[in-house]
Amino acid sequence: MAEYGVCIIKNVPLEDQMVKKVAEFIAPIQKTIYEDVFNVKVDMKPINIAYSNSYLGFHLDLVYYEAPPGIQFLHCLQ
């Protein structure tokens, strides 16, 4: 994490909410307006690039928050 800004954790079970369980091993989860876990799903008529199947490079979310997230976890189930 410190050198590249990315870490890949392998063999995480493909179960709903597993990303939360893994994250809680590392640090407390910070709730946002999107709750503690946010499910991203592709919409055929997206209103935001986050809901499309378009390439979305490395970026930070919620940087405008007073206390933005320090680490974000992504878990692809499909």
Number of helices: 1
Q: What are the low-pLDDT stretches, counting only 5+ consecutive residues below 50? A: none
SSE sequence, one letter per element: H
The major beta sheet can be summarized as: none
For the record, give the distance between the C-alpha atoms at the N and C termini, rounded to a whole number. Answer: 25 Å
Q: Quick one: overall form? A: globular
Q: Which radius of gyration do the C-alpha atoms yield?
A: 14 Å
| Mean of residue pLDDT values | 86
State which percent range the strand residues make up: under 5%
Structural class: little secondary structure
Measured as a percent range, the helix fraction is 10-25%
The strand count comes to 0
Write the topology of this structure.
Layout: H1 18-26
Describe this entry's structure for a reader.
- This protein has 78 residues and is low in regular secondary structure.
- The chain contains one helix and no strands.
- The longest helix is centred in the first third of the chain and has 9 residues, at 18-26.
- The chain starts with 17 loop residues before the first helix and ends in a 52-residue tail after the last helix.
